[in-house]
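A further point concerns the way the authors explain their paired sequence and structure data. The central task, working out the structure tokens from the amino acid sequence alone, is never made concrete. I therefore recommend that a typical entry be quoted early in the introduction. An entry of this sort, consisting of the sequence and the corresponding backbone structure tokens, reads as follows:
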Amino acid sequence: MVSGCPEWAFTQTANPANVIHPEKIVVEPWQGRHNVFATFKVPEGYEASEVVVVTVQGSHSYCGIVMPHSPSGMTIDQRVFGWFRTRTALWLLTRGQLSQLEKPENWKLAIFKPSERVKHHRPDML
């Protein structure tokens, strides 16, 4: 998971027409790693960006990695997870800002038609 955002992530999420928000958010960093994430339903005919941008008021924007999600192996609905770094969530908890991670409008995932997509180097998992 990454915390800092590459510049291209902000460019991708600048146009509201290319952005979706999560249908479900889990914020439980006290449960250990991988317990802060959002689930996004990507519309048919679109692909998701490699990163999700999370904006926290009074701080700056953070990025997490995006992973495909398919519990049955094949699904009609394309869903992806946007993972948020647990240690960053715990840091936000100490600052009284953890509740901002629970707001869908603070999570942005850029989506693209395959023909319009510009591939970027995926951030390393740290």
The chain is about 10% helix and 35% strand. The chain has a mean pLDDT of 84. The longest strand covers residues 47-55. Residues 7-116 form one domain.
